[in-house]
Write a structure and sequence with these properties.
Elements (H helix, E strand, L loop, with lengths): L2 E5 L9 H18 L3 E6 L19 H13 L2 E5 L10 H6 L2 E3 L3 E5 L2 E5 L10 H10 L2 H8 L3 H14 L18 H12 L4 E4 L5 E5 L6 E5 L7 E6 L2 E6 L15
Parallel strand pairs: 1-2, 2-3, 3-4, 6-7, 7-9
Antiparallel strand pairs: 1-10, 5-6, 8-9, 10-11
Helix pairs in contact: 1-2
The structure holds manganese (II) ion.
The site of manganese (II) ion has 8 residues, from loops.
């Protein structure tokens, strides 16, 4: 069985084109390294800091990433895009161009002998009520319809401004682990384990690489971190899921919040 690659939260486009391009190049190099070894690549959301597909127009940029994704798709690698809270307005461009599967909600997946539960991670678990309200508002067809008729030069500039101001898009403040009881996604995993058998939970959204066993179970909660601070990604290989940092020797243990 080939490897499966998981990564998320590139937030391409911010804070400026030079920094974003540097990040985009790193991501492309990583995809190149694994190009021959993977069967599937899962992009778990917030690939772009803001994204919108008009009927005939899409935001400028990201051509190197698109080239790399196209070449992976042409090699037969299956791409999977999860809509994040920053790019929930994704339509069908990536399925048309890259044969990608696009998901708006978390999915359960069996790889080898393991059950995986994967998603962007936004709006799951208790709390985050302000965000949950905004998500309902922005994902409404009416909101999307009205946005569509604003000229892109104005609409995208406005939306990018608000998108960048939201706390999940800011590259400057590193997140810290708040303890198992206060981590919404950790709580969500524990609740989910009561009704389902899951070996690995994989999310993004938190902007903090996490690799930790869940209490009273053999299941593991993995957070993919981001490419603003950490350059982290996960690989499923030979029935094991591991978290790595691009360009360093760091692995699972280094991202275990309970180990320190
Ligand atoms: Mn994010």
């Amino acid at each position: 069985m080939k490897k499966v690659l998981f990564l998320s939260d590139f937030h391409l486009g911010v804070p400026d084109s030079e920094t974003s391009r540097y990040r985009e190049n790193k991501i492309c190099k990583l995809l190149e390294i694994y190009a021959e070894e993977v069967s599937d690549v899962y992009l778990l959301g917030d690939v772009f800091d803001f994204w919108f597909e008009y009927n005939t127009v899409v935001p400028k940029g990201y051509y190197r990433l698109f080239g790399k994704l196209a070449s992976l798709a042409d090699k037969g690698v299956q791409l999977h895009f999860f809509k994040g809270n920053h790019d929930m307005w994704m339509k069908d461009l990536f399925s048309i161009e890259f044969n990608a599967r696009i998901y708006a909600h978390p999915i359960q997946l069996r790889l080898g002998d393991k059950n995986l539960y994967i998603g962007h991670g936004d709006g799951l678990g208790p709390g985050d009520l302000k965000y949950k309200f905004l998500k309902v508002f922005f994902s409404s067809p009416i909101c999307k319809f009205f946005f569509k008729w604003i000229h892109p030069d104005l609409g995208i500039r406005l939306a990018s401004f608000f998108s960048y101001r939201s706390r999940y898009g800011q590259p400057s403040e590193p997140e810290t682990y708040m303890g198992n009881n206060n981590e919404w996604l950790y709580n969500f995993c524990q609740t989910k384990l009561k009704e389902d058998t899951v070996d690995y939970f994989i999310f993004g959204h938190r902007h903090l690489p996490i690799y930790t066993k869940l209490d009273d179970s053999t299941a593991t909660y993995i957070n993919l971190g981001d490419w603003l601070q950490y350059d982290t990604y996960a690989i499923f290989h030979e029935n094991e899921l591991s978290l790595y940092q691009y360009g360093s020797e760091k692995n699972n243990f280094d991202f275990n919040p309970n180990a320190c």
